[in-house]
């Protein structure tokens, strides 16, 4: 079976790897000159099933209004002039009820837990290395209100049997010794099953393994459009948008894993993929004092900033800007990342020497990715919309979508993961229909 995977970020490359292992003849189309050079390049490095939490949560609408007035706010909104931005935000607000939050968190946790298991298996199978550690995530709180709100997450963690430990302020250094010097923390939640690692390094290594297994990578090559016949995709047209048509590639199946560019491509087929580019920033800081640095990930709940140890560096990532496909670096965001790093791990890294980066998270309004068959199309599949957790969910999503592409039954339930949950005005109620696998 010939499969074309569109997109060579962490999601596209994991999909290609699992497809090749399943016996498919795979070609990956990627517009950049190598793998993981867009959103998968410098994310916060968390592989965090325990922290798989939708942004759409009870209390967020009120918090968002307050954040508008704060200098170091985790969220900023700038009108991008599109109706889609307003529709997306409306749908996100509809998901801010406790009922929807629980449904969405269960779906995200289901994919993320499976993904962590797939990653572990992949590591055992291949020996892949990417500055990984398996020391968990420590969420830290600065107010009693945050501690109380964490109880909702704890209820879902219990239900999903995810291990956790609640910590008093004086117990935080048991997990992260350098936090002994931090001020203003009232407690924390430790998720020992979480991992950390460099997503770019992982994707590069995995692309090399996939190539060795027969996957063809076409870097520096853009997909222009999908070629269709009835409800069937026959292939892809290469070439830059607006330029003359380039080469045409034929395929039996096509998987769309273009991150934030997926929506535009699928719109041409009449599909409404609710994936908005949510801009984030990161700093990569060289470590100068080992004992003052984090050993794993610390998630600062107040600023929604994650501080992660990656080899000889600290990766600090966070913030969400809803401002369209804008990749300009805003120096005020750097100030926030530096402030949080200094507050938690003063003296650990060389902040002036840090590299500053931005990326666009492909995000759905309910936080759950869109995995599986595109409704109405018999050989087109989607693997995107992973938002804040694309690294965490990549291996599981790649394996699941590869299984569906190959007509196999996935290892986990697919209920509520497909694009069909957004059709027929079903935004606000769970879709209990099990997705049927495509058969060859
Ligand atoms: C600041 C920040 C911190 C984050 N921290 C974490 C974290 O700690 N843990 C976590 O799990 N996730 C994190 N994420 C999210 C994670 O990085 C993303 O969800 C993930 O990288 C998305 O991967 P992707 O493969 O879907 O998208 P991408 O990596 O963007 O891949 C899509 C690819 O498609 C290619 N493409 C687009 N259009 C075309 C075209 N027309 N033709 C050919 N190729 C095309 C692009 O070049 C790109 O390489 C973070 C994100 C940000 C921004």
Automatic annotation (TrEMBL):
Entry cofactors: FAD
Gene3D superfamilies the UniProt entry points to: D-Amino Acid Oxidase, subunit A, domain 2, FAD/NAD(P)-binding domain
Taxonomic superkingdom: Bacteria
Ligand binding (FAD): 3-17
Reaction(s) this enzyme catalyzes, per UniProt: a D-alpha-amino acid + A + H2O = a 2-oxocarboxylate + AH2 + NH4(+)
Positions of the FAD dependent oxidoreductase domain: 2-404
Gene Ontology molecular functions: oxidoreductase activity
InterPro entries: DadA (IPR023080), FAD-dep_OxRdtase (IPR006076), FAD/NAD-bd_sf (IPR036188)
EC number of this enzyme: 1.4.99.-
Keywords: FAD, Flavoprotein, Oxidoreductase
First-level EC class: oxidoreductase
Entry similarity comment: Belongs to the DadA oxidoreductase family.
Function: Oxidative deamination of D-amino acids.
Family annotation (NCBIfam families): PRK00711.1
HAMAP family linked: DadA
The protein, known as: D-amino acid dehydrogenase
Lineage, opening ranks: Bacteria, Pseudomonadati, Pseudomonadota, Betaproteobacteria, Burkholderiales
